[in-house]
Structure to design on (229 residues):
C-alpha cells in the first residue's frame, strides 16, 4: 500500500492514531504545529502553512486522512496539489466549522489561562457520554491538558479563519466524507456543504461516535479507511 498520511484535530497528537497505525500498512501520522513534537513555525499558522509543510515531507503520491482540522488541511492539499493525492478521507470535518470570533475568543482564553480551561468542552465534543470516562478518552484528554498553549491557540485561530466552501470543487481525488453520528461539531449543514461541493464524494457514518470517531470506534473507522485508501 502507498503512504497514507494521518493528521489529527486541534488539541490532539499522533497518539490518537495508534489503532490505525497498527492496522494499516503504509500509514504515518503527523502532528499539527505546536502539538506533540512538532514545533511552531515562524509567523502566522494557517491551514495553507500546515499543508505546504506536509507536502514537503510526503512522497510524490500519497493518500491522506484528516480528522477535524486535519481534514481541513486535507481539502487544501487535495485542491492545491491534485496530482499528488491518490485517495482522500475527510473525517468529522467541514469546509468551515463554527464562527471565527468564537475560535479567536478560545485562543485568547487559552493564552491567558492555559489549555486546561478547554478540557471539559473538548470532552463533550470529542466523545459520547458513555465513552468519556474510558481509558482511551482519558489518555487523549490528559494529553490535551498538558499541551503548549501557544500551539493550541495558533491552530485554534487557523480553524477559525478557514473557509473553503467556495473551493471544494477543486478537490478531485476520490473522496470519502466520514462522520460520527453523534458529532456536535458537524451538524447537517456542515456535512451537506461537503457533499454538494466535492465532485463524486462518497459518505459514511459511524454509529455511536462523536467528534473523535477514530478513537471511540477504531475498528469501524479503520474499516472505512481501508476501503477508501
Amino acid at each position: 500500500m502507498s503512504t497514507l498520511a494521518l493528521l489529527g484535530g486541534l488539541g490532539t497528537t499522533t497518539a490518537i492514531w495508534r489503532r490505525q497505525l497498527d492496522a494499516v500498512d503504509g500509514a504515518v501520522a503527523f502532528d499539527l504545529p505546536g502539538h506533540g513534537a512538532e514545533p511552531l513555525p515562524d509567523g502566522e499558522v494557517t491551514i495553507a502553512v500546515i499543508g505546504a509543510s506536509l507536502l514537503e515531507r510526503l512522497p510524490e503520491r500519497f493518500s491522506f486522512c484528516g480528522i477535524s482540522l486535519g481534514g481541513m488541511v486535507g481539502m487544501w492539499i487535495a485542491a492545491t496539489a491534485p496530482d499528488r493525492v491518490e485517495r482522500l478521507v475527510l473525517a468529522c470535518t467541514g469546509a468551515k466549522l463554527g464562527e471565527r470570533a468564537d475560535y479567536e475568543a478560545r485562543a485568547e482564553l487559552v493564552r491567558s489561562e492555559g489549555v486546561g480551561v478547554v478540557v471539559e468542552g473538548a470532552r463533550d465534543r470529542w466523545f459520547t457520554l458513555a465513552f468519556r470516562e474510558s481509558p482511551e478518552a482519558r489518555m487523549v484528554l490528559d494529553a490535551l491538558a498538558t499541551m503548549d498553549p501557544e500551539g493550541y491557540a495558533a491552530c485554534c485561530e487557523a480553524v477559525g479563519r478557514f473557509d473553503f466552501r467556495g473551493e471544494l470543487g477543486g478537490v478531485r481525488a476520490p473522496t470519502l466524507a466520514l462522520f460520527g453520528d453523534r458529532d456536535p461539531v458537524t451538524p447537517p449543514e456542515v456535512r451537506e456543504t461537503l457533499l454538494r461541493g466535492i465532485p463524486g464524494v462518497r459518505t459514511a457514518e459511524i454509529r455511536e461516535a462523536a467528534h473523535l470517531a477514530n478513537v471511540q470506534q477504531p475498528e469501524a473507522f479503520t474499516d472505512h479507511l481501508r476501503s477508501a485508501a
In short: The domain at 4-228 is CATH 3.40.50.1820 (Rossmann fold). Strands lie at 4-7, 27-30, 62-67, 85-91, 175-180, 202-206. The chain has one domain: 4-228.
